[in-house]
Queue: 4 jobs
Job 1
Amino acid sequence: IVVLRPPLGPRRLVLRRAGLKPLADTVALSAKLECLLKPSLRALLRMETLIDRAIAAHGIGSALVPPKVPELWEQLTTCPQTKRLDIEVVNSFYAGNDDDRLDWSRPVHGVLIDFKGDSMQVGMLLQRLAERGDQYVMIAGSSPAFNGAWHFTAVSDFEHPAEQGSIPWRRMRVWTRVNFVCSTTAAGEPALTPRDAFDPGNKHAGAKPITPEFRLSSIICTGGLMPHTLCATVVADGGPMAKVLEKHFELGSRFVAIGHGLDVFVACGSVERSMVAGLQAAAFPTQRQLLEVNGMRRSGEAVCTDGQLVTASHWSPSTVEALLSAAGFPPNVGEVTSMRVGSRSTQETVCSLDVSVLPGMEGSTYYAPEATKGTPLTAVFVDDVADPTEVFAIISHLRARQMSFMLVSHSAGGDTRRTVTTETVFGNPMYPLRDCCCVLPTTPADVARRSNAVFDSFFVAGGQCPYALQHDPAVIAIMDGAAIAAPVCHGAEAMHGSKWLTSEQPLRFTAYYGCWVSFRYCLDRFQRMKPGETMRDGALFSGNAPNSTVALAA
């Protein structure tokens, strides 16, 4: 039995036979041998098995596998301009602390989790908590039974690419194991249910009600798109997570939010009034309307503390230490340790389509064969970390219909061209373009605005790209000059301030329900629909999920 200390830091148990791979990876220990090991070593061996099963459950590191609905995936992967890129991803696993290991007389900190979180924010936060020796737990709205209760983050798809790009954190995926599930008791009291006691068929089983003696000292929500998943699934309609958060707020726990993580806390309370109304906060840099429409005050600083609410507008070298210190997690001056329970490097394949080399593309513009330059174009608003399914479906439809278009990103203030890259969704068999991304040549909106181009219509892709476009005067001017609008999923977030969401033009629309708090000022027009549906009101066409894009474009 050998304990290794690799350069990345985790201590990992490896059992070896001479000339063979680690024993734990090749054969199961006999019951007789296992009983001779200390309980801590037995637990480590079992965790190694759980980690291997979690990776296998999502097909991560295996050959390319088409999604359940493969049509769009086959179209992109067989395109002559698509390249297959082999990448190495470091997978770090954090298990938190289960109920039987916690001392509730001491502070216990809760980290809200789900799929597609920001790996840098989650990983650096958990490493800080571990280094300090803090008690922390992963809090979820459900416990994925099929993969051993693990969630995992996105890979290199950061919430704020411009600010986070200077931090060395590339091609890393962070896995977090559920410790507690938000629930209620049979009497309706907000509660936390330990993972091993959670029963999807009996949601009250094992529920432990929140009390002054049994509560989290801090609740932390990181950014990215993960918070909106929580808003849509377990916070909306007074869901179990909303009840748990509201009870903790009442008991005086500290609430810590990064970027879009604030949206989860804003979504708590009632439709008429947010739980955190009246407080001051630092919101994501472009979300000017979020605080105003939810009765909050905007801080002039990137990190803000107001009572029990601590917020950072974004994650960057200038905000990390300020936020962690304000939240009560300054650096530990003692020995640095790691609470990772495992680490794996996986070799993965990504199908990458360079849109700039598609037939008919001239820079960021596609000219239909029969079109003449100077005729109206469709503006397709895209930016970094856009949803690849939505981008590819829109572009494919316009090219098939021989409609000329220009790919437009946020204003640059000087640059005449910008290349942006969509996100890459790994390990989700239901996602239409799993393991795929698009590289897009774009014209900044201010450059497009000054050009001779005329736009009679526009699409807005979702993902995180609308937040790069929000409140951009040139983007709004192009939208206001168009006669037809078509946002999909989060795309409607880019239309704040445009004529399409003003009271003078009260058109109904739909969008991903997880971002509803941004539209509190026009909720009478925000239509909640089943995921994948579309709607039309006059010249405003909208869809609420990636799988609605094909129907929306048609």
Job 2
Amino acid sequence: RRPKKTALLLPPGGTLPRRPMAQSSTWKLAQACALQPLRIVNSLVKQAAQAQAATGPLGVGRWHGACRTLSTHTGTPRTAGSQRTLASMAELIDDDDDYVLDAPTLKHEPPSVKEVARQRVSDLERQALEGGGPDRIASQHARGKLTARERVSLLFDDGTFRETDMLKAHRGTDFGMEKKRFAGDGVVTGQGKIFGRTVFVCSQDFTVLGGSLSETHAEKICKVMDRAMLVGAPVVGLSDSGGARIQEGIASLGGYADVFQRNVNASGVIPQISVIMGPCAGGAVYSPALTDLTFMVRNTSYMFVTGPDVVKSVTNEEVDSEQLGGAVVHTTQSGCAHHALDDDLQALAAVRLALSYLPQSNRELPQRVQTTDLPTRKVLTLNEVVPEDPNQAYDMRSVVQQVCDAGSIFELSPGYAPNILTSFARLDGRPVGVVANQPAALAGCLDIDSSIKAARFVRMCDAFRLPLVTFVDVPGFLPGTNQESNGIIRNGAKLLFAYAEATVPKLTVITRKAYGGAYDVMASKHLRGDANYAWPGAEIAVMGAQGACEILFRGRPREEVDAEADKYRHTFSNPIKAAERGFVDAVIEPSHTRRILCEDLETFENKLLDNPSKRHANMPL
């Protein structure tokens, strides 16, 4: 059945060994060739061509064809299709009783040093990406939390994150730690883009040794913070850690101190935002406390210096983690956090939003955005917002929303010290910081908590060059033994100090009351206010008319006191006296407030003002 053979040219005096090759042997040969580097397969082709002998021209042609097919498939993944190709080649070579050349012995060369290194790097990278493994990741998800890498992926613009120190691992050997080495050491660090601007991140991985901080863990965080300072870019810390790694002892405590020092160095230079997305206990809490903004996730995050077990052993008080240091506690009572969000997604979205108001560093101006809200827009409803009765409350939040660009308000600490409002906002696309007394809470009085809240916000805005817009309706400082004994003098002075020290543009609008020392404190002209305005119904005085006359005419009949109060009100409870002395620059219609503020922001955009040279001020802390 075989075609007629033709003469072959054999080597002089030589014969070629021939033997039937079983199908199994042929299959092994085909498979071996397919798994060899291309240069070895090419060598087989060259040997077959030089020999020019087999069972006949057909056998030689089949050998050449098989080898070429093997060459084209070398280095490709072994799919089902390639397996069928190998089988067909084996059948082709072993067709009927053809004879083929003895296959040369194929030697497997040992992998090079580079290949070994590449494989090790690939294995370590895979380990770093897997974190603590599938079981721990599933446990993380079961708690309603994302993993460290999932959080980073959602924080940054798609495809912009670049990781640093992915392979870094701890150096501990005590307590069997040499057997628990993970690439990355429980924290994901690097940089990416948020709205096209560079931001650095440290995301702790609770699936790896509980996210505990070791010496190398801290080194990774410090490296990223140093880079952020070097290039002038914000840092975001995503905290989800059980605290210091006990197995490393003092080395982990030293790591915390190194991080704290960088927090202090970066304060006022680059924006720092902390997001508590899990446990944050012991010394770890002081890093968020040193940053500019802190966000927490409800029900999954908590912060405290000493945990429930320690509290019980010392005070015999039964309390759980949520009651001791949950998101609600820190956003309504302690003021340690600025926002409580429902889940990780909302928390990361809040970070992105907050950064949109802030510059990259104190070397830059905040980024202005395009807006469709015209700066000349009149707000006619403001003409009627303030009640005729000076003792009737109204919502200052509504005033701020109507004056600022539509949809631009991002309020901070809304649940803490509600008698004062602190918000990021925009006017004609320019980011500003808004401080406003809230008559709907404590009549807008300043107390200890509101003074601290506003003072810290004012200083942050001044550090990052955000102009300050202040809406004033304050009857004074809250009286009472509780306030006095807890230091209203010292804490009220913090807000006074913050406004007096600020060198950014300061615009002030008095909507109704501005009484006593609170008038001075709330960005008055005397504290280097750049533009101070009053609405027609504003009352700028030492105190209210009735109270003033009861002191001035003590002992007089009630009818006489009331009559004098009416005279006092007509004379002093209006903005005219202040305007005559230049303490307010103009008395304006409420509906024109937005236009005037937008024009002033443009006027004072390039304001230059420096405080006297000093090592640092001695603020009443």
Job 3
Amino acid sequence: RLHSHSRFFSAHSQHRAMGARALLFLVAVLGRVVADEDIILPPTLTDPSLPERLMIFMPGGLVPNEYYKLTAQAIQKATSDVRLTVVIPEVFQKLCIITCPHKSACAPLKSRIDSAVSKSGFNSTNPKEDTFLAGHSLGATCANYLAQGYHYEFAGVLEFGGFVDLTGDASIENFSIPVLHMAGELDGGGARVSTMAGLYAQSKKYADEHGLEAALKLKPVQVLEGMDHSDFCPGFFVTKTKDCVSEVSREVALATIGKVAAAFLHLNSPVSEDTKKSAMETMKSMLDFTTEMVSPFLTAFQLEKGELQGQPEGVPAGPWCKVAQEEIVGLPASDVAKLKVEPCELITAGLHQFEHQHTNYTVLPDGSLEVSCFSDVEPPAMSISESQFSAKSVDCKMVDATRVEEQLHIETNTSVECADINRRAVEVAKKLLPAKSLKRHEAQGRGVCYLPDYTVPGNIGPLWVKSNVKMTETESCLQVASSKLVSTIKSPIFPGNHYCKLLSVSAAMDWMMTDSHKPFPYHGPTDQVEDVFTETIQI
């Protein structure tokens, strides 16, 4: 490596640099030598009276396209009343995103697709009626970008283990052509159940406004039982997403994928009424399991931000910072009713605005104490296409125990910590988890370990606002440590406050449903050459 003060390359450094460039060149050349070839699957049905349709299937990142052949054939097998051609194009360096990094920059990928389709013999008469885009994982992102970049001039989009934008013009709610989302219950990557919940919420909103059958035809979201991210590319385990391990056989996975994809194609193609009816029945039957998986996350999302209506047994009404406020003051059980917590105000303008909020308190005529609190639900640090994952943290500004003790003249427990609220979050998460998921976690998942709260240097407010809940994965558990800022009534600055960055209920659910089942340190069942390729490219 070169130091910043070096003025010249040494001969040794020049040799190393040349070697690195030669290695990159060799990798690039080898990448082309072993590059995929376009896969063309002609229709399995040959009746000329049946309508012709084309499905362009974008492969996932660094996954050789041959691993999608079985999936495409399963979809063809399940599709009746349609002569379905499938094209799985070869893409540059097995990364479609290189030639389609944004909706406005997909011309190279579109040209590559057009070349592959030209070999299939399929002749489109109107792409908005006869051409579907599909993609898995990163390929789903490319399919999304292609649809947007070419003004939705397609009959529909099928997103496997991936998703369109969560908000804006290309969200499910506003997508102008039919779009199917499906992902495995055990998807270890971005299309995990918590993310699918956010997508399902938009599909449900459309159903509430336009009817269930319209939503299942145009904007269906399905979670596939027992399946993982890699079930869409059988024979290739996707270690890059830190995938979980499927609980179903290859045959079951392929049949399920084929059934749901075919139902979507049938509902959006000119097939018989009997075929459409059967397709709708398939979508409705699959929806039961989907709802079972995603509804708990929707409850958790609402609990973190606002008040629940008709909450499940053992689950507080919320919002979560109100739950935290009631617990952090350490009142004896006999005196809890004397604390009146206003619904915590949710700040949605960002942490800068949250920083300038300050709690207040008022002694009421009946002798009880009314307090105000503020909350900010932080989105995750990492996102894909601005997607929704479980909250990074729930940040609470609350009145502290010493202020309550002073005003109510009741001895309080000043040792209650943010960690105690985190324990409560995990307890509530277990109440919300589907029974199947909780049973799996308790049988084989890693737990949560609660570390003592930590403080920022100088107990400075702006530094606390920028701090994080520390989550450290270990072989035995997920270690969680909250950032706190405690200013007792003796503090010269903003006295009588207790601030906490808390583990969100949805993040606890995410851990128990998905990540707790992964080995640590992570390893897949097989080593992939593509992992080495990626490491090299990133030199």
Job 4
Amino acid sequence: SYMAKAMESYTAFDARSGALRSRNRPIFSKRSTWSNAGIILGVAAVAIFVVMCGMQRGEVQFGMPARMNQAGVKAKGPMAFRGMMAPRRMGAPNAVKDVFMPALSSTMTEGKIVSWLKSEGDKVAKGESVAIVESDKADMDVEAFDEGILATIVVPEGGTTGVGNAIGYLVDSEDEIAQAKSQAGGAAAAPAAAPAAPEPAPAVAAAPQPAAPAAPAAPAAPAAPAVQATVATAPAPPAAAPQPRADGRVVASPLAKARAKELGVDLKTVGGSGTNGRISVADVERTAAAPAPAATATATATVAVAAAPAAPAPAAPAALKPADIAAAAAAAAGHPARGSVVPFNSMQKAVSKNMVDSLEVPEFYVETTINTNKLDDMYKNVKEKGVAMSPLLAKAAGLALAKHPNLFASCLDGNQVKYNEHINVAIAVAMPDGGLITPVLTDADSRDVTSLAASWKDLVGRARSKQLAPEEYNTGTFSISNLGMFGVTAFKCILPPGTAAIMSVGASQPYVVPTDDGGMKIEKQMTVGLVADHRIVYGAQAAAFLRDLKSIIENPVQLLL
């Protein structure tokens, strides 16, 4: 194809001889030029084909490692990724797909399988939830990003494994289930088994009754005549309906949550028929349509009443041991049995790690006393409108923080200060099963109190049932801890890593204080403390923040503007 149309002369430098020499070279025709372009395009096509084949085998993926995508699923065949297009199916796919433990938050290193929503052999549709995973702060659904059959479950319910490890396998057809099971059996490392549950506290049993001595035979009593009696009889009980979880946690599918909101059904009152009490749409609709309990029916029945000798008096129960009484009381209150060892759950592990990490931060503490007379009066008025104290405190802190950007900044590597764009106030909430979580009220300086109050009510409700999304609890740039409702007057917080300061709020109590004219008066006061990172916040700056906060709380009309 290289057809020379003509030759042309040119002068070139000969490196060997050091002289200029005249040389000839061909001038290619248009036909030859198009041939070169065809060769280049052919090579490019071959390269694209090789890359696509690599993507088909799971060896090449764009935007993330081939081992795991954002959904926590390793695909050895083509599949849809969140935020990117799946490659086209080319050639015969490798049918086994590994379902991985996803990273549900930036601090999550391992996860616990709360429940499997699918059983081995079940068909899974694209986008369908297959399992519920407990992270360090919340329970979240793991959705399938490809359709198939759940061939085998690697990590059982209650099992724990690291982020990125396989928790199950999907296949395209039943013929490949054996291959998936073989692959699961050959895994190098098995996931950590669920910790053994502590033995239940021994029940307090009644002492055995001694056998009564045989009584002498008594003369047979005449049979009593049958009498007509009216007794209350209940209708035959229907099949037992599922009951809500004993621990109070709400485990529901996204569709069930949306349906419950439409029907006005409180999910805490719904018994789930799914695995581990998971609530489905059918459960919500059944609860919404449930009629009021039927009245007890009264029926007339004929019963035979016969005279019987008086039963012997029961023997006195044996004395109970103090240890048995204490164990029974602990079990009734839902407390662990004395002497038992209970491992941390995922949230408690995360809290423990953060507390240890906080020891590396040089911190200091300052506090002030604030008059709350006007704030308490305002709270009485707005409480009727659904505004809690926490949103008021968040709003007051947000207004004060706007004047002190280093108080909601972050120290990076001990050498840089990151001045955050938003004032997001995180407020600590205790969890029923231990640990705490910090729902975040975003942009607390610019939003009105009514909006903050509505968000706070929603956040707290979902926080205690572990239904918060990661961005709803890990994006705080300033924190508040309030123990005033317990009567605590003052306390020192532990600074969360990655933040500049945390504020503690004590109880508001009446005090006798002097007046300007030498008299005395009663004034309600609360103590507010501040723990700050001394690398980026200095004592005078912390004191200035508390001064501005004091001014806002003692003149709370600013909170309603």
